[in-house]
Amino acid sequence: MTKKQLDESVTYLKNKGFDTPEIGIVLGTGLGQLVNEIEDSLVAHYNHIPNFPLATVEFHSGKLLFGTIENKKVVVMQGRFHLYEGYDLLDVTYPIRVMSELGIQKLFISNAAGAINLDFKKGDIMLIEDHINLQGGSPLAFKNVAEFGDRFVDMSEPYDTYMRNKIIAIAKREKISLQKGVYASVVGPQLETKAEYRMLKTLGADAVGMSTVPEVIVANHLRLPIVAVSVLTDECDPDNLEPVNIQEIIEIAGKTEPKMIKLFKELIKTL
């Protein structure tokens, strides 16, 4: 990755009218309905943006949208990139760097995840308070990383406490059941075995997914405050494990998404 590549991506988007967004939003698997809330939206398809990776997952849309939500300018990723698609960690996190260069001051991230904590149920929303990186690498482990920021990034509080507290207050006010916990990020795309679910629980994970953590590491590198939520789409009980049904996961994500949209929109109002 070079500064020149980033500049080419950003110049293309600015020429399309992507003008100094305040908030960047990453939408997870099955969580695309938020784009319907964007007013005066402009669209840039990933395959048209210079140096951008291409989305290869069938239920990931593959476009960047710009517009306003609650009178704030936003840029929204509808469709993200994953290691399991064959990308590397620089590809996966490239859009975060582009959104930062466009001018975002805050980053909202969503994902679909499996509940490891058996007190949590499918259809719940979990506010991510901390994470465990099990993807076997770092998006900061490249030769010229110092050109983009400090090589050694503090991760003692990777998720912004101010925005987390705001989300907790909004959930209480709106009577939205909100869990809080630790998200573990694995490579995938295969789902976990019973033994792996037991291991994740022992490690202290409350939920597991295949995204988010690389994006959060890069956002911390860029000193971007982050808030992240998981929509819990399945219950990972190793003693009563049923075969995974991807269509059911997408369906549950879709049913739960309106609550996530409410949290994000109300949070945007307060910023």
From TrEMBL:
It comes from Croceitalea rosinachiae. CDD domains: PNP-EcPNPII_like (cd09009). Residues 23-269 form the Nucleoside phosphorylase domain. Belongs to the PNP/MTAP phosphorylase family. The purine nucleoside phosphorylases catalyze the phosphorolytic breakdown of the N-glycosidic bond in the beta-(deoxy)ribonucleoside molecules, with the formation of the corresponding free purine bases and pentose-1-phosphate. It is an enzyme of class 2 (transferase). Pathway: Purine metabolism; purine nucleoside salvage. Keywords: Glycosyltransferase, Transferase. Coiled coil: none annotated. Its EC number is 2.4.2.1. This is Purine nucleoside phosphorylase. PANTHER family: METHYLTHIOADENOSINE/PURINE NUCLEOSIDE PHOSPHORYLASE (PTHR11904), PURINE NUCLEOSIDE PHOSPHORYLASE-RELATED (PTHR11904:SF9). The lineage of its organism: Bacteria, Pseudomonadati, Bacteroidota, Flavobacteriia, Flavobacteriales. GO terms for molecular function: purine-nucleoside phosphorylase activity.
